[in-house]
Amino acid sequence: MKLFILRHGKAGEGIPDTMRELKARGRDDLRKVIESRRAELLSIRQIQTSALVRAEQTVAIVAEELGYQGEIVENIHLTPWAMPSDFIASIDENAGDLLVASHQPFVSDLVSCLTNEDIWMPTSSLVCVEAEYMLPGTAELLWQVNP
Prior knowledge:
alpha/beta
């Protein structure tokens, strides 16, 4: 199974934080990153997102760019301060390749938990990890693309 982990695009300022929207630069960066890995991303069978506006806008761009017609699921375990172990426990390996859109520090913490590698994910960064079963320390970091 491949897990594609995407940090939302660059967002504007705002209160409340949950309502911050993507900037034009964030939208452009996302499109470039998606296009750079388009072939691999076509294997996605499900997209999950946090409920924050900037993440929802991010997955809308992913779906548009890839022509993705499947379900987009809000997952409460994808908030900025969620525990990677809670998200990992929610993964259904039988569902196929999965893309998630979330926030810092969660995205970097998730990659570290799965691969035992420390990375930093700037906005619009995309990481691909692979494992037969997604469990802490079992995944291989295949690549990272930054805008």
